[in-house]
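Feature request, filed as a ticket because there's no other form

It would be nice if the structure record came with a short human-readable summary line next to the C-alpha cells. Right now we just get the raw output. Example of a typical job, pasted below so the devs can see what we mean:
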Amino acid sequence: SGATGYSPGDVAALFEAVEEVLPCCSNDWEKVASHYNERYAGRFIRTQRSAKALKDKFRALTRGEMSGGGKRQGEEKRAKEI
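Raw output as currently delivered:
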C-alpha cells in the first residue's frame, strides 16, 4: 500500500476542521487532526491523518497558483479564504 491522496470530501472535511479551530500553533493543528479524524475519517472509513499531514495539505493549497480551472482552483480559493 502507498500514500492515500485526498478526495474532494477529504479536502472539504479538512476545511471544516480548520474553520472550526482556526489553528495558529502546533497544538491547534492537533485539534484539527482530532476533529478531522473523529468526525470525518472514522465515520466515513477514510484514512486517518496526522496533524502534520493536514497542516501540510492545507498550506500547500494556500500556496498553490490559481492557474487553470476545475476543482483544484476552487480548493485553493477556498483555502485562501479560510
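Something like this underneath would help us a lot:
The first helix runs from residue 8 to 21.
The mean pLDDT is 89.
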